[in-house]
Design a protein that fits this description.
Length: 112
Amino acid sequence: MTDQQPDNTAAGTPPSVPNTITLDTPIQRGNTTIAEVTLRKPNAGELRGLSLQRLHAADADELLKLLPRISTPSLTPHECAQLDPADLSEAGGIVISFLLKKAVRDAVLQST
């Protein structure tokens, strides 16, 4: 028995979208350096007060409101506002994938 994960792509199952970002510009929090941030799929309540249309468009203001709610380690609004644009853009792509229906997301992943 091995500890390796099965390769689902061979069975026709598309790969999952990674939800961990390795930051181009790490965040310094006191003596701690945050080099990676994991985003989790938000539930409907965590989207309250946000525009789904603007999130689908990866609008920076909407992303900056959502990221503190779904990031691990939990980023502050100020830390999110200090993100490198490339890191914010990558986060936007992950958030957009969270908003897609599974069948649509799988079709997109199969076509790439």
